[in-house]
Amino acid sequence: MGTSATAKRTTARTAAKVKKPTEPRLRIRLYAHGLGDCLLLRFAKSDGTTFNVLIDCGIITVASGAAATMKSVVDDIATACGGRLDVVVMTHEHWDHASGFSEQQAQSLFDRIDIGEVWYGWTEDPQNELGKRLRRERADKVQALAMATLALERSPSLAAQERAKGLASMLGFFGVERASTDLAAGQPIQRTRSAFDYLMKRRGVKTRYLYPDKAPMPLRGVEQARAFVLGPPQDESLIKKSAPGMKGREVYELAAEANVAMSLGAAFGRMAVGDDTGALCNDCPFDAGVKPGGNTVPRGSRELDALIAATWNKEGQEWRRIEDDWTQAAETLALNLDTHTNNTCVVLAFEFEDTGEVFLFPADAQVGNWLSWQDLRWRVKSPGGSVEVTGPELLSRTVFYKVGHHGSHNATLRTLGLEQMTSEDLVAFIPVFKEQAVKNRWMNMPFAPLVNRLKEKTGGRLLQSDGKIPTERQLSGLSSAARQRFLASVQRHPRGLYFECSFD
Question: What is the reported pTM?
Answer without folding.
Answer: 0.82
